[in-house]
Design a protein that fits this description.
Order of helices and strands: EEEHEHEEEHEHEHEHHEEEHHH
Largest sheet: 9 strands, mixed
Shape: globular
Strand order of the largest sheet: 5-4-1-8-9-10-11-12-13
Number of strands: 13
Amino acid sequence: MKQETPIQPSVYCYGEVLWDIFPDGARAGGAPFNVAYNLMRMGIDAHMISRVGDDQLGTDLMKKLQDWNIATENTQIDSQYGTGTVIATIDEHNEAHYDIVKPVAWDFIEFRNDYTHKVETAEAFVFGSLITRSDVSRNTLFQLLGSAKFKVFDVNLRPPFYSLPVLKALLFKADLVKMNKAELRLILDFLSKDYSTEDDSIRYIQDTFNIKEVLISKGSKGAIYYNGDSHYQAPAVPVTIADTVGSGDAFLAGFLSKRIINSNPEEIMRQATALGGFITSKEGACPDYNLQDFESFRSEKELACTQL
C-alpha cells in the first residue's frame, strides 16, 4: 500500500515586504516577511500576502521570495507606488531604529477573492499593526480576518503608525497576541490601566479582549506564554549579539512552528527562544541558514545548559 506524504502545515503572513537600508547596504525585511522566512526554514509552508512596486527594488524582492521558496503569487505589483523602504540605523547598544517611508506599495494591498480560501485553510494567519497605517491595506486585513481560523497579532508598534481604536479592534480579533514588555506597558497606558505585576497585566489583556493566548518576549530575560489559565516561562538563550534586527520575528516563527503542530507548551517555548537567540547571533533578520544549522545550534546550547 502506497504511503501518503504528510501534508505540510501552512501559514499566511500579511503585510509589509520592504528593503531595510542600512549604512552597509540593503537587506530584505518587514516583520511579517521575516516571520515567513524563518517559518520556511523551520519546515512550514509559509506564504506572504503583500505588494511591491513595479521597479527594480520590487523585482529584486520578488527574486528574494523565489530564492527563499516563498510563493510570489500572493504578492501584488503596484504601477503607481514604489517598493517599500526603511532607513535603518544601529545604535551603540546594537538596537535598530527605523525611518519608515510612506506612502509605498504595501500601503495599497487590494483584497482578492482567492485570498479567502487560502487564509481560511491555513493553520495560522499572521499580521501586525504597521500595515493598518493606510485605509486600503487595513480594509483588506479586516476582510481576511473574517476568514482566518487562528489569528496571530504581532503587535509590533512603530510610532506614529498606529491608533488606539485600530489597536483595540485588532486585539478583539486576535486568538494569539505577541508583544514585547514595552508594548505591553504601552497598551496598558492606552487603556488607562496601571501596571502592577506582569501576571496581572497579562490577565487584564486576556480578560479585556477575550484572548486565550498571550506571548511576551522580554529580551535577555526570556519570554512568557499564557494559554488560558496556565502560563509557561522560558529563559533567553545566551548568545553573542550580532544585532537585534528581526529577533522578535524569529522568536514568533519558532513559536508558531511548534504551536501549529500541537507540540507541548514547554517545547514550543524552547523552540521560540532558541530561534530568537540564533537570529540574534547573526547579522540581519534573514541570514542564510537551514534547519540543520539551527538544530545544531539548539542542541549545542541545550547541552551547555545541562553541564552548568
